[in-house]
TrEMBL record:
GO CC field: endoplasmic reticulum-Golgi intermediate compartment
Endpoints of the signal sequence: 1-24
Name used for this protein in its record: EF-hand domain-containing protein
PANTHER family recorded: NUCLEOBINDIN, NUCLEOBINDIN 1
Organism: Tetrapisispora phaffii (strain ATCC 24235 / CBS 4417 / NBRC 1672 / NRRL Y-8282 / UCD 70-5)
Protein's gene: TPHA0O00690
GO molecular function: calcium ion binding
């Protein structure tokens, strides 16, 4: 293994150790990814196979796929999208499967660390963006985007991810009415159902909180200085 690749691997390992330490002490509502690349695959190769169904690709096509607005460079949003950190929430495993729980938030601080780390690796001229030429030079040396402990980099919400990874493959062309039900279909349906229930409960709790004022909340709104002296009757 080349020295530069060893240094890159070491840097990403340090990043993952720090991220894991932070994850151990974080808000239980924040999502923690546990998936890692299969043995023998780099994170980038894993991402391209899983998210784009591409076992073979070149740096030009990788860049074109992830330069979202075709600007000719990667900015913070592109990096976040590449690593699946631009989503509003992570439901289940993020791919349309998994069990429903309350850990759906994206860790914003870790997202910032990911962006900073990637720009330090590739942003040679330090202009806060990764030009196509900088990425191609990075790739030409045999480097690939590293595993930073945030999963495979799902680009979409859990509904679209289910379509991309299961429905399109097994149902779209031959079974659009899903007459042949797989365990993945059941798992996704349950995930969708429980997530919908949770959303409705949050809306109801929010509505109740907004319309019902408790005694403590009412008292907190009273400014004693504004009460006329004749009404205080020695109580204040």
């Amino acid at each position: 293994m080349k020295l530069s690749n060893i240094l890159l691997l070491g840097s990403s390992l340090v990043f993952n150790i720090v991220a894991a330490d932070v994850a151990a002490n974080k808000n239980p509502e924040v999502n923690v990814e546990v998936e890692t690349p299969p043995e023998g695959l780099s994170w980038e190769e894993w991402h391209m196979q899983h998210e784009h169904q591409m076992k073979e690709y070149d740096p030009e096509s990788f860049f074109a796929l992830h330069d979202i607005k075709k600007k000719g460079y990667f900015d913070d949003d592109d990096i976040l999208a590449l690593y699946g950190l631009n989503r509003g929430e992570v439901v289940g495993k993020g791919d349309g499967m998994g069990e429903h729980d309350s850990s759906e938030l994206i860790d914003e601080e870790n997202s910032k660390r990911v962006v900073t780390f990637i720009k330090k690796l590739l942003d040679v001229d330090d202009d806060s963006r990764i030009a196509k030429e900088e990425y191609l030079a990075f790739a030409k040396k045999g480097h690939k985007f590293p595993d930073l402990g945030v999963g495979v980099g799902h680009h979409a919400d859990f509904e679209l991810e289910y379509e991309l990874h299961h429905w399109n493959k097994f149902h779209r062309d031959t079974d659009p009415d899903v007459k042949n039900v797989h365990k993945e279909d059941i798992e996704h349906e349950l995930l969708h159902h429980f997530h919908e229930i949770e959303h409705e409960e949050k809306v109801q709790r929010g509505a109740s909180k907004g319309t019902v004022i408790t005694d403590d909340e009412l008292e907190s709104r009273i400014d004693i200085k504004n009460i006329p002296k004749k009404f205080k009757n020695g109580f204040f």
